[in-house]
Amino acid sequence: MIHSAVRLLRERGYSGMGFREVVKHSGAPRGSIYHHFPGGKAQLGVEAIGEFGTFVRDVIVAVAAAHPGDPVGALRAFIGAWRQIVEAENYHAGCPVVAVGIEEHEDAPQLMEAVVAAFDQWRTALAELLTSAGVPESRATTMATTAIAATEGAVIMCRARRDMRPLDEVAAELELGLRSALNPP
Fold it and tell me: Which of 45, 93, 125, 152 lies deepest, with the highest CB count within 10 Å?
């Protein structure tokens, strides 16, 4: 059910995700959703965001491990993973964390807390990757924030345009910035 919720959040956002759609997509019995998520839709949303947040953090860690001492290669692989997601979904799905983050949730502030936690996980993992590659700590967190914001924005633009060019342009600029940080003048 959590995986179905992630999928639906990626396509429709929190407002467009309902228990009925989650049950239908997951094939779970209707009553089980209330058993597993007694806190309702907000609890399911929080758990879905948490699951996806941890998944992306783990991708960052795996990419770093696959490219030891090569932060540019790691950056390329990370952006390549987003490329695969967007292309595999034929531009119909993006990031569930962003989808929830751009909506207003006055009745469920825990959703925004989950969004912040997910982004913080990613920023920390990226900053650690950059620091271990030689980027000064003073720049690593800022660069990680920039990379996440730019990549997420590019994914949104790619979906809107049905074109990967924004992600390619962001990747090129991030690579230049990373090379500059690694080899200051």
Answer: 45
